[in-house]
Amino acid sequence: MFYHRLFEIDPTTRKLFRATDMVAQRKKLLQTLAFAIGGLDNLDALVSKVEDLGRRHAGYGVTDAQYDSVGAALLWTLEQGLGPTWTPPVAAAWSEVYRLLSGIMRNAAARAQRLQNVWPAPLDVFV
């Protein structure tokens, strides 16, 4: 449901997954969400992992605009899945969590890109 919506919202994201096992990718997404939610009580440990994730996504070619598309698809998917329990406070909480995590990822990706401009190397070196 999530990836279908993502590709519908932003067709440019489809190319990022052209060689991806989507069954495995869905599992990774669920594991990442579970890890992130579980880590909200220990932000220091969570930030380090999310920064690594942001640097890896930079290496995949994820653009800043695509983070917005992912956020929209994620919130839509959660709304569909939660039905009547998707209330304004729940929507606000999920929006804030996504804003926080995607901001960390974006910043880490931007730092990796700047570093690569100074010292060209594959982005996975910075992970």
Model regions low in confidence, pLDDT < 50 over at least 5 residues: none
Domain count: 1
Classify the secondary structure makeup into a structural class: mainly alpha
Number of helices: 5
CATH secondary-structure class: Mainly Alpha
Task: Characterize the main sheet.
Answer: none
Q: What gap, in angstroms, lies between the N and C termini?
A: 30 Å
CATH T-level topology: Globin-like
Helix amount: over 70%
Q: What is the CATH architecture annotation?
A: Orthogonal Bundle
Strand-residue fraction?
under 5%
What would you give as the CATH superfamily? Globins
Mean pLDDT: 90
Q: What is the overall shape?
A: globular
Annotation, overall tally of beta strands: 0
Give the SSE string: HHHHH
Rg, Å, rounded: 15 Å
Describe the protein's topology.
Blueprint: H1 2-9, H2 22-38, H3 43-60, H4 64-82, H5 88-118
Helix pairs in contact: 1-4, 3-5, 4-5
Account of the protein in words:
- The longest helix has 31 residues.
- The protein is built from five helices and no strands.
- With 127 residues, it is mostly helical.
- It has one domain: Globin-like.
Key attributes of the depicted protein:
Globin-like; globular; mainly alpha; 127 residues
Q: What's the gist of this structure?
A:
With 127 residues, the protein is mainly α. It contains five helices and no strands.
